[in-house]
Amino acid sequence: MKRIEDLQLAHTTIALDKDGIATVSLNRADKRNALNAATVEELIDIFTTLPRAGVRAAVLRAEGPHFCAGLDLVEHHREDRRPEDFMHLCLRWHEAFNKMEYGGVPVIAALKGAVVGGGLELASAAHVRVADAGTYFALPEGQRGLFTGGGATIRVADLVGKARMIDMMLTGRVYQGDEAIAVGLAQYLVEDSEAKALELARTAAANPPLSNFAICSAISHMQNMSALDAAYAESVVAGIVNTQPASRGRLAAFADKSAPRVRPNEG
Ligand code: 1HE
């Protein structure tokens, strides 16, 4: 099993703090963090390693003013790929994004600037998305004579619905600001998306890891099941999670009235 410190990273970086929060950064700002094949391999390595390295939550962020410009179009042009080459490349993208979504470690995406094409596919594999005022979302594949290949047909359609996704791809429609939140592309719109993402990661990391594992993998798995199978799987997962030793002290605190109550937001 690889350790975080053994990972060979050229286009990404990872930093782990003392609380088990990992900060994963896309580090190709000069190319607007476009995803070349090598970066995708690094994301596979990172998100395969994090869940078994004791990481409690991760922030996914980017260097430079843009989160991610999607597929490396220059590499794609240069490589002049055959259909089967690109199919295999897409399978590596899926491997990376599935590791993120199903790995059981909360991944909070700190967005800014362009979150477009494959960049939106990457963001949509995170569990929570935080945007700032300059963040904008688009699927320019149609305009480039391409199609999505990194899971947008599943995850972006899940976030915004089929009709909006088709509109984005046919017309190049860009979403930003309150409208992006309203359609479900991000859950938070703040001044500083990195600070907020870190705050959310710390909040999530305070939950027992087994609860977070269930939240960040079981829900996604259950979406792929029939309602009957999902109900069965939910009861099995709840059987394990809801009887975990880590919950006993929390339940005792509720019972003896020392635990905080759930209250409405102030103001
Ligand atoms: C790139 C890429 C890229 C920038 N591949 N090199 N994605 C897109 O269609 C989005 C394409 N990119 C853009 O629209 C713009 O670059 C941005 C809005 C993201 C940023 O604009 P800007 O003015 O800040 O930068 P720029 O001058 O356009 O680009 C700066 C450099 O980044 C330049 O390289 P340089 O060596 O000439 O300096 C660009 O070539 C490079 N760059 N974006 C490669 N995408 C699994 S299928 C997924 C399908 C898709 O993702 S399709 C959507 C692709």
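^ 1HE complex. The mean pLDDT is 97. The chain has two domains: 4-205, 209-255.
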